[in-house]
Protein 1
Amino acid sequence: MGRQQADGRAARCSRAAWTGALAGALASVVLVASAAADYALIGHDAPDFALHATAGNNVRLSEHRGDVVVLSFWGSRCGQCRMQLAALNRSFKTYHSAGLQVFGVNVDDDQGGALEFARTEALGFPLLLDPGKAVARAYLVDNLPMTVLIDRGGSVRQVHRDFSSKFEPAYLQQLRVLLNE
Amino acid sequence: MLHVAHLGGFLVLKTAAVRFAAFAIGACILVPHPSAWAQSAALPAVSSAPAASAAPGAAAPQAPPASPLTQAPRAGAAAAGGASAEPGTGTRGLDQDIQGLKKDVVDLNRDLFVLEEELLFPANTQVAVFVSMDVGEFFLLDTVTLKIDQKEVANYLYTPREVEALGKGGVHRLYLGNLKAGPHELVAFFSGQGPHERDYRRGATLRFEKGIGAKYLELKINDRQRRQQPEFEIKDWE
């Protein structure tokens, strides 16, 4: 009898855990989808740009047509930006061979912070400098961090404002969809 | 209803008639791309000639075995009788129509591009500035900034691929705009890495007279071997 009650409790707990996880996943998908809904560039060609990198060569977006490109707009004084860049670095290492390109676009007026960050953090992808904010304006950046996902055809497909580690699975799922196209 | 799909350089064309024939013989008909037709038609002749020359005294070489691509239509023809030749010619004609339409679109696009250029940049006011580079051993180009009459009109960042293309003889159109007739001044700033990988920035100036016709100017980056330095000049194409 006691054993049956224990089994029932375990089943209820497991059901509750599944329900919670499902609700969380749905909520994150809804949040991610709502973030993309009001972005004017969705479905349009990504504005082309060429920027200096903190280290290495200049980068022109149009040269990466055929790859899935993630643009992450960030500032050196934004803590969430750093978290997001670290998460993107993990994704980049995993999916780079499948055609993923990640570019961190720094929008600081003073490039010192970005250069220092690039020196201390060993990121695998290029960090670009946009002190004039021309690229940030072209991509309608209104929040930091902000991430734009561009498909292999060069169209803007997704945008994420803000970052939280709980959204990471949803981001990865979107990335995988784009990489599989 | 027509389904067209690329399959390794071949087009798979399935019309209703072809489907019927395929159903009859239980095979799918593959029709090669027109560019491949000529090639496939030439293949037996090319392959049989060396065989004949290699063994002049031998018996006449057997015809090369037909590939599955050529076998399938023959099988279809055999199965469906004389009427099955029509689907092949039909699909061929359809493919030619598609190719013709594609060519028309390309031609139309070209005409529109020319028309746009003529409207936006009429020949009597047009000014075009090009960048070219010879060798580039002493200078690794990074940016070119262009000023015409003290006004910045272009600022272009070059990627390694673009620099490589310039080194191979490519010419980049940096600026296309309009200027009224009369005297003008063009200043170009080149920045990049100079000898010994040092940051390098140089300028070049040209005063030119804009006449009635279009004006073409070329920013040339050359290596001066004697001085082991890059050289920048602006050439006025008359």
Protein 2
Amino acid sequence: MSIINCPECAAEIMLDERTEVGEIIVCSDCGVDLEVTALDPAAIQLAPMEQEDWGE
Amino acid sequence: MIRVGFLYTRLRVEEKYLLEELEGRPEVNVTRIPDGEVFFDITQKPAEVDVLFERSISYSRGLYIARIFEAHGIPVINSSLVAERCGDKYVTSQLLVQNGIPTPRVVMAFDEESALGAIEAVGYPCVLKPVVGSWGRLLAKVDNRYSAESFIEHKASLGINHQIFYVQEYINKPGRDIRAFVIGDEPICAIYRSSDSWITNTARGAVATNCPVTEEMADLCRHAARAVGSGLLALDLFETENGFTINEINHTMEFRNSITTTGVNIPQKMVNYVIDRATAN
């Protein structure tokens, strides 16, 4: 388990052992979408902006 | 061993559920394929897999990569044909109409002046939608001629894709619509999506509750699913005075809010379908 800070609002975010690289998580404080880019050491960044053809 | 390629843009909650289900099966070997990180030589088999499970958020990436796999004899769930039929709202509407399936009236136009004529032909209120798009993005409810002129002017500034004017009859919903989940062509469960807004996507805050699948609903879902080629589908239905009408059909559905709500293990049933299709080949 790792604790990392949100790049947008600096809130602490906990990554549990089931977290995967490429996973999208949401900061519970500011609501921004974050992408997990590495696990050892843990790293996150703002997720790519939604594209026009994204959806279901 | 069944070799499953898993195509994705992002690992959302849905993709994690599906991967957990796939990777928990001893007879399945999963190859993860992030759609933005790889390139494809179209003369070469793209991966040594028996089936591709297409879960791209990007419609364009999913469609083209599905075509590449299919060109090399690898089945894709959902197929590129199903993606084309569901990913473009005009194509879906045309197929529903051709198959006699109730669906809101649609008028198409390709120029700003004729778009105004199309809107007036459908009548107010009506809905302007991008033919490719999701999550309720860039929908516009047109209430009168003034707002029609404004929306058309705004769309003109958004680029060539927004010069395809898809004008849909507005259906006065009872504060909710229905999303039905279909595997193959069999509905497995459904939810109501309730909202104070006229846009009832859960991505836009609508609340999900269980919706019992009636025989009338099931029958309509089967017909609509067959019309687009069957597969893993989410059908959006409106309730009207004259019965159900099919609004849209989604081919890479989200279901995170529907598992607990319906009590149906949707990812398990989706994976069963993919495995069945792989072994059938």
